[in-house]
Amino acid sequence: TIQRNPFRFSCEMPACLCAAAKIQFVQTERIHKTFECQQEKRFLKRLKPTEKEQKERKKVIMSNVTTVSVKLGDFDLVFETGKIAKQANGAVYARYAGSAVIATVCCGNPPEVAPDFVPVSVEYNEKYYAAGKIPGGFLKREGKPKDKEILVSRLIDRPMRPLFDKAFGREIQIIPTVVSSDMIHTPDIIAINAASCAVTISDIPFYGPIAAVRVAKIGNEYVINPTFQEIPTASLDIVVAGTHDGITMVEGGAKEVSEDDMLGAIAAAQPVITEICEAQTKMRELCGKEKLPLM
């Protein structure tokens, strides 16, 4: 009876035998658990790739990554593709200093009836997690797009929309998402350039690329891509977008500056815009897809 079920003991059994039976049962259970853990570890060890296999996988992944950089102010603006969002028509991971944006572009199926406009939608996302924060209060989720996100979406849409071919006809969706923000450099300029680069290397017909920079006049100098701390001290703060050939959009504000100051800011932005456009063109030559046919 003791061997079959050690916990069912008669009242006449001595206390020492009961204790010995319990100890033997516990030890047996420990042996079984240890054996099961060893088997599980062996199984997981077989599934886990070796260090050599991990290096080979990383080598294959990195061999498909294309990176192009351009000097923008004090730091390099780096465009990277081939590692993230491979199922999109085009995807570019852009980083500048401690800020990073992933921009993806997708298009739909050919419509039955071609529209008489360009069906492009831009949705710029700037979530709290990019700065390492979580919304407080009862609702932990973030609601509708903030005013800043809508305004940045318009900044992206305006210089790009005229460069899509109306005969393409398919719906196009551009989604730049801020992945990381260092709270020093503005991510909206990175998003504009990343969105243009994603469309440029995609298979969507696009007569670009376009590029954008922020120009601020601090004292008597024009600063390209000023920080959040420098913008309030500037007498002029504008966002300039354009192509290889010229300027296509100017938006911003100033404290009653002269026309010469405004023209000087635009002139300071033009060579930087040209360099960014050349970097996007270089990336298209390295990894660009063949363009889809028009309707």
Major sheet: order of its strands?
Answer: 1-2-3-4-6-5
* SS class: alpha+beta
Number of strands: 10
**In one word, what is the shape?**
globular
For the record, give the distance between the C-alpha atoms at the N and C termini, rounded to a whole number.
86 Å
Strand content: 15-25%
In terms of per-residue confidence, which ranges show pLDDT below 50 for 5 or more consecutive residues?
A: none
Radius of gyration: 30 Å
- Provide the helix percentage: 25-40%
Strand count, sense and closure of the main sheet?
6 strands, mixed
Instruction: Output mean pLDDT.
Output: 84
Order of helices and strands: HHEEEEEHEHEEEEH
Number of helices: 5
Account of the 3D structure:
The protein is 35% helix and 23% strand. It contains 5 helices and 10 strands. It starts with 14 loop residues before the first helix and ends in an 8-residue tail after the last helix. The protein is globular, with a radius of gyration of 30 Å. A hairpin with a 4-residue loop joins β9 and β10. α3 (147-160) packs across α4 (187-201) and α4 packs across α5 (259-287). The model has no long low-confidence stretch (mean pLDDT 84). It has a 6-stranded mixed β-sheet with strand order 1-2-3-4-6-5, with helices on one face. Strands 8-7-9-10 form a 4-stranded antiparallel β-sheet, with helices on both faces. The protein has 295 residues and is α+β, with helices and mostly antiparallel strands.
